[in-house]
Amino acid sequence: MNAPEEFDVIVVGGGPAGSTAATLIADQGHRVVLLEKERFPRYQIGESLLPATVHGVCRLLGADEEIRRAGFTTKRGGSFRWGTSPDPWNFLFALSPELSGPTSYAYQVDRMTFDDILLRNAARHGVEVREESAALEAVTTNGRVTGLVYSDPSGVRRELAAAHVVDASGSTGRLHGAAGGTRHYSDFFQNLAVFGYFAGGGRMPEPDAGNILCAAFDEGWLWYIPLREDLTSVGAVLNHDQAPRIQADREGTLRESIQRCGIVRDLLGDTERITEGTYGSVRVRRDYSYANTRFWAPGITLIGDAACFIDPVFSTGVHLATYSGLLAARSVNSVLAGELSEERAFGEFEGRYRREYAVFYEFLAAFYDMRQREETYFWTARKVTNMQAEDMQAFATLVAGASSAEAALVGADTLAQRFGSSSAELTGAVERTGAARTTSGERMTELFRAPVVADVMAEMNRIQRRGATGPAAGEAPLLDGGLVPSADGRHWVEPDAAPA
Ligand code: FAD
């Protein structure tokens, strides 16, 4: 092999996490190369977005206008046939006390188009994008990652060197081990998903027609995402022990799940499943709820699904991917500019990222724990009270990681109590939502009053505000003794150096 080609930063993976980090680093004038093993546009699941990605991160990336013009379905929130109420109820972004306003919506996106827009945007911002180029292994020198070996489009092995490698290669990437940790799988979210696409189907009544619908049934739940008038994404989330049944008959398992879930069955009616082209197959994903014990090591950072993912239920994946891309870019930019030490900059990255992951993990666990009409194995197994102490302990340790700010969470008993009360709050809020049927505003106020919901919205709101309205003056550190974003949102600074 020839001498390695040199860059400031190598980003592996051209999904939302990689494109976000690469763009925000290249914007600072650094030489960034992004390796993507596929040729875009390529298929990916994860179609329902949250407002912080659309109005916060995409605006920082300068891609918001192009995304607006792409004609994606507008998503005002989520509709849920979930909990004890037989009728669907809504979680509308507009009714969050902080999110209300002209940007209180997100999109349902076909990921081929969305990811392609972000990757081409990265190239326009100066990132050297190399498709059909698969990273093979990290190169380490004296305990520090200093580059990697990849296979170019003709299959030739080549070496790259850089001050920093950002691993955004998703759940199937191979580099995460180079951060020195291990991947820990959640015992609580032991779900798998089987999903396909239908040529249309009914819509919820306006103004909720663009909402994602999540509908619980005895053996799990279904998502129903209106991507276009003639395209609906439908997936069943089932217990992992359904794997053999799915292996034997994917299509049959998806169809039976739809038949078992009245609201989705009625919406689909006799709409045909698409059987040709990119949307023509029934796909399966499993083992997707995990987090790595380390999110960075000298010379390498893990972001997006390369670091962690929880569960599809509240559309958190692309948010965590783009959020972590933004956090990592601030850290890389601060270190390359010689403003902060690696420990300080990446300590902030990891602390904030773990905190966001933990807040969502608790929220999603509370969501699964909510009282359902059914008492079947799927829902009983997802009661927080039935969680094994070891899983609680393992999760607490995982969340605490290198972040001392989360150390208070360590301890299975504390965590069980905390998750239990979050889920009781959420159930109570949703039940009151059903009772207060007069105005949607009253209903939603109940939901947003639940502390676990407020926690989930808080950091997302900050990101969205920053994208929508520019730098937030006088932002307080999120972590004890932590840093704050610089005025342009692209670096970290010590709180006393930030403009008041
Ligand atoms: P990815 O989008 O996976 O991108 C990683 C990229 O890296 C890929 O393009 C891949 O080709 C490339 N790559 C991999 N290995 C290499 C290599 N060795 N070299 C070079 N390139 C490489 N999220 C939501 O927000 N909303 C949803 O509704 C939603 N639904 C979901 C449903 C299911 C069943 C699952 C499992 C997940 C869902 N998600 C959802 C999560 C979402 O899919 C992910 O969180 C999101 O795609 C993560 O983005 P990423 O950029 O980290 O990774």
Automatic annotation (TrEMBL):
SUPFAM superfamilies listed in its UniProt record: FAD/NAD(P)-binding domain (SSF51905)
Start and end residues of each stretch annotated as Disordered: 467-500
Classification via Pfam families: Trp_halogenase (PF04820)
Any one GO molecular-function label of the UniProt entry: monooxygenase activity
Matching Gene3D superfamilies: 3.30.9.100, FAD/NAD(P)-binding domain
InterPro entries the UniProt entry points to: FAD/NAD-bd_sf (IPR036188), Flavin-dep_Halogenase_NPB (IPR050816), Flavin_halogenase (IPR006905)
Similarity annotation: Belongs to the flavin-dependent halogenase family. Bacterial tryptophan halogenase subfamily.
Protein name, as recorded: Tryptophan halogenase
Protein's organism: Streptomonospora alba
